[in-house]
Q: What sequence folds into this?
């Protein structure tokens, strides 16, 4: 790929270089797959990327020779390695003039690899870093936002086509089969995480994957899934009732729905992650279900389905303009079931924009 | 779950304890998800497991309270944490009498977490370890082998049902949609990796995922996918030709098929990983395509789709009785395409047993 005017990857690499200067680093060794894709476009699973002020070098293996050239050739020099990416690093780094202090990604490098780097690369000063690229990734540009919107559209249409097929006697796995088929037919490049279809008592398990359990009349059914478009993820949850909802289901559903709506309307840039979380949590607590909302409110989505920022009660970092986050309050009661409603929300300069349009009112599948 | 006589998890924990004694460790901190599942049955995505001679303690978060009890209650004491698994570790460890040296999994712990452990846990001696649990996992017991066989059966039946739907004009994504639907309908608990449907020139990319490319007459089509049953994976590849194969396709196919068959019949316990790899590599080299076989021959499968052992030219470790490995030679030619044939093989006490039965002869889809 030729480098083109306005290639967003060039702007990203330039911003990273400014960040390296601020951090007093001559170069950064990038082992995170998502960070590598963000900076270079390379989508393979095996690579090391080195960015200095003067160079961008992508080391990958034989399997990705053609793919590396197509995806990253415009912004990075490619090094194709037959045996070990790490051994190639020791031939690449000495060629980078003036590079003495090198950062590595402490949150994306295994202990064993960090040991190797420090021991084999004793002629450089190695410094653990955090979030140098992730902080850039929080602020989605227009192209990234379009990808996420496309991933949302695929997911919503797939769910719309699947809902009529949800019926008593079908297993959770059969529902997952149809939903995932539609996701792929509609162009989802991957399943960003294991589809959750959790029905009846299993819906009380916030992360239950689809099982052989047969759906029964009266079940709560949590459907949590996503799509990928242009490398970017969507992440959506809806909860249905099979048949007519009873009063307890309806009451809990309304509380979760209102918590979702309240938080989705109020997540503004500048707000701390803990304060965003508190909007939904306070609402649910005031309505008596605080003990049943055990996870945090949401997380960023983008090239990864879980990325910065986090909306949780321990997070002091403020939300940034341009982030896309999930808003996913839920309540879970052992032996009874669970309810979660999850939307994807862009934190725009003029306030939150909910990207998901699938109905949020209680849907009784009769 | 009550502990039952003959519970394989108890034997695994006992063998790990023997390994800890040999390694001079009082306890092991386990952060690998697959290792945790192997030892306790717990399948959640967020946990820390501590095993000492006297105790097995599983720390997990609120979301997995019910699931943790059901899956791991029989062999582990559960600690449910609302905020940070790591902070709970510092209340669990002091309760373990006589524990002073603690191993951690260097290959499964991020640098940032290892730093945290060493800094916050200064009253213990921390030692990086490798493969203490993985080495046990290589030798599958009868129950594990049954799970893998079930995962193979699901995958093969799904492929059988999908093949008649592969036709010119369909996109790779549409083929993936049908294949994945059948996998789920037939009970696969998850997709163990991103399904690869790579056609035409794209089949020269060994790890190309399904795209919007439309299949054309004359295409080579690589289909690489798997199923999960009881937590265990299968991993299978077949390469088809859409329409009639030409002479070059047929010639390369026969070389790959023969390399596959030769290696599958010859992977015996005790053989080094490099020697297993060499069986197929030498065959392909002798037939002039050595430069086109750029990846290694195979890898172990089990709770993970890539696990020990590795069958690669750098590996000196011998294959162990009871391992299940992939045998997946391939050739890739830029601009022309690629061919890969991958089977799952159990390395039994009396020699290799090929678990995959799907036909390996060249299948022309006409």
A:
């Amino acid at each position: 790929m030729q480098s083109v005017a306005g290639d967003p990857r060039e702007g990203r690499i330039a911003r990273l270089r400014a960040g390296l200067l601020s951090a007093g680093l001559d170069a950064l060794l990038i082992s995170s797959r998502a960070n590598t894709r963000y900076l270079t476009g390379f989508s393979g699973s095996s690579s090391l990327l080195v960015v200095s002020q003067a160079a961008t070098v992508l080391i990958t293996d034989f399997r990705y020779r053609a793919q590396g050239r197509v995806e990253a050739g415009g912004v990075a020099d490619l090094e194709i390695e037959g045996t070990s990416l790490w051994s190639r690093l020791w031939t690449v780094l000495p060629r980078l003039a003036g590079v003495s202090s090198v950062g590595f990604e402490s949150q994306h490098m295994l202990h064993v690899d960090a040991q190797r780097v420090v021991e084999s690369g004793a002629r450089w000063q190695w410094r653990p870093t955090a979030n140098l690229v992730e902080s850039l990734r929080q602020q989605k540009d227009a192209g990234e936002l379009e990808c996420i919107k496309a991933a949302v559209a695929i997911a919503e249409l797939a769910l719309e086509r699947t809902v009529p097929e949800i019926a008593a006697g079908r297993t959770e796995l059969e529902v997952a089969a149809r939903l995932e088929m539609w996701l792929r037919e509609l162009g989802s490049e991957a399943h960003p995480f294991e589809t959750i279809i959790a029905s009846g008592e299993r819906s009380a398990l916030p992360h239950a994957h689809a099982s052989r359990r047969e759906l029964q009349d009266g079940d709560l059914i949590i459907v949590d899934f996503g799509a990928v478009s242009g490398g970017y993820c969507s992440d959506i949850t809806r909860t249905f009732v099979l048949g007519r909802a009873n009063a307890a289901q309806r009451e809990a559903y309304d509380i979760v729905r209102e918590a979702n709506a309240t938080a989705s309307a109020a997540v503004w840039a500048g707000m701390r992650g803990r304060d965003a979380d508190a909007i939904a949590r306070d609402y649910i607590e005031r309505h008596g279900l605080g003990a049943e909302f055990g996870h945090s409110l949401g997380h960023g989505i983008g090239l990864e389905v879980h990325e910065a920022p986090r909306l949780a009660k321990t997070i002091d970092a403020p939300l940034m303009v341009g982030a896309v986050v999930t808003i996913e309050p839920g309540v879970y009661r052992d032996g009874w079931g669970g309810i979660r409603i999850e939307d994807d929300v862009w934190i725009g300069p003029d306030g939150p924009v909910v990207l998901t349009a699938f109905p949020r009112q209680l849907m009784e599948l009769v």
In short: The mean pLDDT of chain A is 95. The radius of gyration of chain A is 23 Å. Chain A has ten helices and 19 strands.
